């Protein structure tokens, strides 16, 4: 009997062992309860992963910021924008003071720079800024950018000039070099502008872009910016000395070829554009409203309606040539 009782006890113990080894099933913890109980647990822990529920927010790599992306607000620096866009005349005066100050500062420091893009087109017509141009464009070499970053970054420059009415004008400008300017490829396209010369009174600016030989092995002598504008060394150099908005300036050697490649031949002959008409007698772009007001008081000459050929590239004759520009062909 004792032996039979011992076997019975052993059998009972063996039957209980699996039950003791396997813990009873616990209910899944409620993730929302965990979140509320322990703030160290990330929100949503325990829930199935849903990529669509968590869209990736791209990193903003843009250095220069503007208050808006349209043609109007996209041409002000966000740091100095007053919240109000300047009017037509103030816009023209601001750009005029900007380029005069910029060219003067760079010449005083013996820094090579030249006017480009729409600013160069304005010079081609009459040595002035086109009145509808929202900003100004200049270029420098990539090596100049490096020097500017080391020696003149975040420097302020004071300008004293005269308004069209003769009043003394005081402006202060910031030269700001983009820290991404050393990167000579486009990348994500957010930093194609390498530097800016900014009017601290209203935020308007000059865009400064650098040129470099990005592929000297396969494309020697081809210079480009990060916005894919390309130039050959022989089209850039030797630079030409001229005058722009009344101060000494520099333009590329083959300025006409560069302009035609960028804007087409039509840009050099069209005499009505963006609400303005070219008045040959005045050598000025005049807003349509002004042009209409003067139309009845004068006869339209053949020169006014004929396709315009700037005198700077006409065959030299006595008395020709833009009077406010230095002779380009000597």
Automatic annotation (TrEMBL):
Question: Out of the domains of life, which is the source?
Answer: Eukaryota
**What InterPro entries does this protein map onto?**
FKTN/MNN4/W02B3.4-1, LicD/FKTN/FKRP_NTP_transf
Q: Where in the cell is it found?
A: Membrane
| Topology versus the membrane | Single-pass membrane protein
One Pfam family in the UniProt entry: LicD
Q: Which GO terms describe its biological process?
A: glycoprotein metabolic process
Name the UniProt key words of this record, in alphabetical order: Membrane, Signal, Transmembrane, Transmembrane helix
Query: Which terms in the GO cellular component ontology are assigned?
Result: membrane
Main localization of the protein? membrane
Tell me the leader sequence span: 1-21
LicD/FKTN/FKRP nucleotidyltransferase domain boundaries: 107-214
What name is this protein filed under? LicD/FKTN/FKRP nucleotidyltransferase domain-containing protein
């Amino acid at each position: 009997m004792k032996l039979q009782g011992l076997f019975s006890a052993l059998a009972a113990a063996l039957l209980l062992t699996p039950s003791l080894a396997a813990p009873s099933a616990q209910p899944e913890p409620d993730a929302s309860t965990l979140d509320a109980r322990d703030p160290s647990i990330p929100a949503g822990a325990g829930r199935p992963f849903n990529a669509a529920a968590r869209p990736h927010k791209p990193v903003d790599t843009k250095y220069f910021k503007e208050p808006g992306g349209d043609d109007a607000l996209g041409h002000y620096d966000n740091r100095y924008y007053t919240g109000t866009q300047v009017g037509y005349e103030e816009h023209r005066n601001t750009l005029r003071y900007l380029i005069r100050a910029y060219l003067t500062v760079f010449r005083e420091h013996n820094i090579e720079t030249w006017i480009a893009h729409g600013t160069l087109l304005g010079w081609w017509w009459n040595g002035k800024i086109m009145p509808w141009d929202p900003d100004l464009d200049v270029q420098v070499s990539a090596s100049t950018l490096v020097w500017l970053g080391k020696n003149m970054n975040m420097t302020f420059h004071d300008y004293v000039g005269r308004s069209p009415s003769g009043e003394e004008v005081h402006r202060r400008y910031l030269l700001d070099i983009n820290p991404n300017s050393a990167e000579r490829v486009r990348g994500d396209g957010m930093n194609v502008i390498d530097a800016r010369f900014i009017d601290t009174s209203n935020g308007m600016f000059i865009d400064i872009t650098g040129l470099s030989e990005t592929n000297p092995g396969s494309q020697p002598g081809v210079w480009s910016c990060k916005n894919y504008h390309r130039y050959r060394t022989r089209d850039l150099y030797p630079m030409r000395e001229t005058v722009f908005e009344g101060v000494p300036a520099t333009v590329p050697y083959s300025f006409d070829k560069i302009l035609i490649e960028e804007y087409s031949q039509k840009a050099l002959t069209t005499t009505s554009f963006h609400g303005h008409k070219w008045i040959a007698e005045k050598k000025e772009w005049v807003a349509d409203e002004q042009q209409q007001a003067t139309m009845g008081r004068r006869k339209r000459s053949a020169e006014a309606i004929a396709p315009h050929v700037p005198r700077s590239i006409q065959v030299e004759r006595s008395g020709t040539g833009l009077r406010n520009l230095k002779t380009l062909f000597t």
